[in-house]
Write a structure and sequence with these properties.
By secondary structure, the chain is mainly alpha-helical. It has one domain. Helix content is 78%, strand content 0%. The chain is elongated and about 40 Å long.
Length: 80
C-alpha cells in the first residue's frame, strides 16, 4: 500500500506554527468533513473500482489530517 511521504522537519515546523490559527482550524475542519463524506460514500458504494478510489481518498485525507495534527508531537519526538 502506498502512503503519503512523511513530512520533513521544516514542514512539521510550518504545520506546528499553523496550529491554533483560526483560519487553519477551518481548513482542518473542511478536511475532516471531506474525509467523513468519503467514508460515508464508501459504505454505500457497490462498484468495486469506485469503492477503492473512495477508500483511497479517505486514507489520503486521514494521513494529511494525522500529519497536520501530529506535527508538534512529531517534532518533540525528534522525527525527521
Amino acid at each position: 500500500m502506498r502512503r503519503m511521504d512523511r513530512p520533513g522537519r521544516e514542514v512539521l515546523q510550518a504545520l506546528a506554527r499553523l496550529d491554533g490559527n483560526p483560519d487553519f482550524d477551518r481548513v482542518i475542519g473542511w478536511l475532516q468533513d471531506s474525509r467523513q463524506r468519503q467514508v460515508n460514500a464508501a459504505i454505500q458504494e457497490r462498484d468495486e473500482a469506485e469503492l477503492r478510489q473512495t477508500q483511497g481518498a479517505a486514507q489520503a485525507l486521514d494521513e494529511l489530517i494525522e500529519h497536520t495534527q501530529g506535527a508538534r508531537e512529531s517534532l518533540k519526538r525528534g522525527q525527521r
